[in-house]
Amino acid sequence: MFNSDLTAASLLLGICTLTWARAMHFSPMGGVFVRFVIGILALLGFILLLKGLWLPEMVLVKGTGDYRLVLLVALLMTFYVALIPYLGFLVASILLFALTCWLLDRRAHAEKHFLRSCSAGIGLTLLFFFAFKYGLSVPLPMGVLWG
Amino acid sequence: MSRLVWALLIFLAAVSLSVSAAPFPAKPITYIICFDPGGQSDLEARRQQPLLEELLGTPVIVQYKVGGGGSLGWAELASSPPDGHTIAGINIPHIILQPLLRGDAGYSTDSIIPVALFQATPIGLAVPKDSPWQTLDDFIAYAKANPGAITVGGSGTYSGHHLAHLQLEKLTNTQLSYVPFTGAAPQVAAFLGGHIAAMLANSNDLVLHRDKLRVLAFGARERFSLLPDAPTFLELGLDMIPSIDRGVGVPKGTPPEQVAILERAFLAIMERPEIQEAMISQGFVPLRMSREECEDYIQQMTVEYGAILQELNITGAQ
Amino acid sequence: MLTQAAIALGNIFAWPNFGFLTLGTLVGIVVGCLPGLTATMALALLVPFTFTMPAMQGLIMLGGLYIGAMYGGAISATLINTPGTPSAIATTFDGFPLAKKGMAQHSLVAAAYSSMIGGLFGTVLLLFLSPPLARMALQFGPAEYFWMAVFGLTIIATLSTESILKGLIGGALGLLLSTVGISPIAGDVRFTFGIPSLQGGIDLIVALIGFFSLPQVLEMVEEYHVNKHIGAFSPKPGITLEVVKELTRKPGLLLRSSLVGTIVGIIPGAGGNIASLLSYNEAVRWSSRPEEFGQGTIDGVAAAEAANNAVVPGALTPLLTLGIPGSPAAAVFLGTLLLHGLRPGPELFTEFGEITYALIFSLAVSSVVMFVMGVCGSQWFARMINFPISFLAPMVTFLSVIGSYAIRNNYLDVVAMLGFGFLGYVSRKLGFHPGPIVLGLILGPMAEQGLVQGMIIGRASGSIIQYFFCRPLSAVFILLSFISALWPFLAKSYRRQMKRG
Question: Nearest 10 degrees: CA dihedral of B143, B148, B152, B155?
Fold first, then answer.
């Protein structure tokens, strides 16, 4: 358990300081709205800080959720996005489908399930890749490996 | 140094060309559009697309890369492989002003080689039909008597419209209030609704709404056939020809032979009478500026705009 | 006029025109349901095909596409909690909870039905009242846009069910995010941190995909050890009839939502996203059971969807009469008209009446076509909810990546989307919901432009204060903002009184 209000409030006030430092150099017309918004945000952050001190709201980090799995999937997403420029969209997506299925279904020992998900993933990726390239003229990244 | 790189690049390109003697174009050409679909840059590209495909013998793919007033697309163009297969619509003065005004626009003006300019959009000063100002003289007289009281709408800040406004203020020694809008649609809506007293607008918008407005001055060398009553700025004794010009460009380092092939295709399209007629009827002035003419023109405009900005003490160091 | 209208209507149903209209509607639904593909983009892609067609054929195909895309957004909003188009943001609020309850088909049918009503309602207004409505659009100046944005921000009071303070903070953060990039008004380079790609600002769609879809994936994963599926759907006969009957019993809801949609559509610069959020807000406000909203009620879906489809005829109103496009998508229609040598204005309704009326009627006809397609497809789409999460999780991630890339062909947008996704997940845990943030992001540019332009005009006319506060339409919006912001308190005290009395 931790005081989420205080965390959020200090984060907000940090954002306000950071943005204000930049916004000081904006032209009068380009800065008026920004400074106005930062002012409001700082005020709200301050109220949240006070609320956090008097009526703190506690957030349960350890709930019923499987946060280890969430972290793993989030890592997988990050790797997926990071790999696209290198492996290209096709290969990276097929990897994503395979790895996520494996990660989520490994305890169930459902090989049939896994194969079905993987092949559906591959089909979907190919379908989208070609539909985007030829139907919508949006060439998805091929990656350095495939030119 | 940069000349050396240039020479090296041209040499390398020449070598690779002579070795492989690859026919150009070897694959589909990507035509980057830096503004929203449905905008003028897009429509012009769509009009050229089938003709280009016919002339070049390869598919032409229109791709949108919108944002930052065009800078996102031009940055993409500047960093694309210089093999002639990536081209982008370019706008003048945008590609001159952005690198001058922003610390880093993502590209520099000389990182884009112009292939051809095919369309000019003169900028005109317009007031509503029921406005008391019949001529530019009336307008200037009022502005002199009431400094800052006339609101003039335009698209963007440090854009073609804004510079036209600054030039007008300087040449007539008046003070006007420039109201920037995000594009033609909101600008014209505010004008027709009477929220601004006058506007600096592109010729196509002036033609589209010609029944509801009066053009006091027009930014071309001669009068435009669809707006015969609109005098040019030059006629009125003001030495300015505000205009936005459209064309296409390729990244620096593209082999000259390939630029020449693209140039020939675009100029051939502009020779067609039906294309010229369609452009005029929509309020554009057709151009047929070759690569060399474009380079001279850009050079000349860069000096001119640089002088205006310097005089107004505006620098890009942000 | 009457004969022209009759000929136009006949032409729509003639072969192959009706085929093109149907094709346009179908393509629209598909494009609409894929996050990242917008109606504007699809319209622009179709424009080259319309060159070779007669103007009328091309325009009715585009009309069908626009209508279809507005409905298509509801499909992904319901099934994967990701608005397929920005106009479907409000649809997620109740659509996805319905899907979780196993009522995905209810949501899809409600969306199709209310979309049809919205489209028909808007078309009738466009047909009979376009000149006065277009004149109303011109009344909106910078001050009015500013106050309208303020009024829009008061929706936060409805959107933030848990804590109004956190809702306000989310809204302010959204406003701040909207200022990233080149300032459209002053030309300043703001908060780009030296990255040229950020000069284009944060694309709304990239933020939407990030805030809505990735957190949903992570939440599915979080509960994966308990729930292997989002919900269960088993087709039952009679759902369509049941939903249609229930909604028909609430004509007030449908008409009000359609009216809000049409009016917002007419105003240039305000589109389907604002319309559906405002309409959702009004539905909550006037409902006798406001507590059901957000828990999965077809009323919420209907309010959002009727409004965003009514936007389509609304956006075409100022275009056809004045030549001012009411939305980015309407700009593509303007371009198509011009390419075919048609100039918006009175001639469009006289000399070229057959073409213009065909375009107007095509909106109504494709609304009906869309309803039929939506109902037929709803059963099959709803089955998607039965996919196991181990497949849905990578699929939604994949769709998010593809969508955020397609919008501007920019890899950095994918990275930004991922960042927003993680931010969205963490902030949900801290009690901040994405609704207010996205609302701020949508309304930020409108508020800023109105404020700055209004300040310049006010200064030129002598008094900024007078310009912002002493105009009739501004005063109306100021009053509405006050009522809207205080509504939750008013409603509470009213209910307390009722109980006592």
Answer: 140
Which of A34, A133, A137 to mutate against chain B (most B CBs within 10 Å)?
A: A137
Do A122 and A78 fall into the same domain? yes
pLDDT for the residue numbered B17: 46
Provide the CB-side half-sphere exposure for C308 (13 A, CA).
34
- Domain containing C261 equals 2-500
CB of C455 within 8 A of CB of A32? yes
Statement: residue B18 has pLDDT above 50? no
C-facing residues of A in 14-73 (CB < 8 A) are 15, 19, 22-23, 26-34, 36-38, 40-41, 44-45, 47-48, 51, 57, 59, 64-67, 69-70, 73
Looking at A16, A31, A59, which one is the last position of a domain? A59
Q: Give chain B positions within 8 Å (CB) of C187.
A: 101, 156-159
CA distances from A65 to C216, C392, C421 (A): 14, 18, 18
Q: Are residues A80 and A118 in the same domain?
A: yes
pLDDT in tens, B194-224: 999 999 999 999 999 999 999 999 999 999 9
pLDDT digits (tens, 9 = 90+) for C360-400: 999 999 999 999 999 999 988 888 888 888 888 999 999 99
With CA atoms as reference, report the closest residue to B150 among C335, C456, A43, C309.
Answer: C456
Average pLDDT value for residue range C95-122: 94
In this predicted model, which residue has the larger pLDDT, B306 or C277? C277
Angle at which helix A111-130 crosses helix A67-105, to 10 degrees, equals: 90
| Token pair belonging to A29 | 């017309």
pLDDT at B20: 47
- C-beta of residue C200 within 8 angstroms of C-beta of residue B67: yes
Q: Which sign does the torsion angle of CA B191, B192, B194, B195 carry? A: negative
Backbone dihedral angles phi then psi of residue B152, each to the nearest 5 degrees: -120, 120
Same domain, A72 and A123: yes
Per-residue pLDDT tens digits for A42-70? 999 999 999 888 877 766 555 677 888 89
Question: CA B70 to CA B105: how far, in whole Å?
Answer: 10
3-class SS of residue C29: helix
Tell which CATH classification among 3.40.50.720, 3.20.20.70, 3.40.190.10, 3.30.420.250 matches the domain B121-218: 3.40.190.10
> Does A129 lie in the same domain as A84?
yes
* pLDDT over 60 (residue B275): yes
Nearest to A74 among C175, C187, C422 (CB): C422
Q: Work out how many domains chain A is built from and give that number.
A: 2
C443-470 residue pLDDT tens: 999 999 999 999 999 999 988 999 999 8
Give the pLDDT band of residue B9 (cuts 50, 70, 90). Answer: low
Q: Residue C190 — φ and ψ, nearest 5°? A: -115, 130
Using a CB-CB distance cutoff of 8 angstroms, which residues of chain A are in contact with residue B61? 137, 139
In-domain check, residue A146: no
Average pLDDT over residues B87-111: 88
Residues from chain B contacting residue A138 (CB–CB below 8 Å): 63
**pLDDT value for B19:** 45
Which pLDDT belongs to residue A110?
Answer: 62
d(CA C6, CA B307): 61
Look at the alpha carbons of B101, B102, B105, B107 in this order and tell me if their dihedral is positive or negative: positive
Look up the domain containing A90 and give its range. Answer: 67-135
Which amino acid is located at C438 in the chain?
V
- Does the B2-120+245-311 domain belong in CATH 3.40.190.150? yes
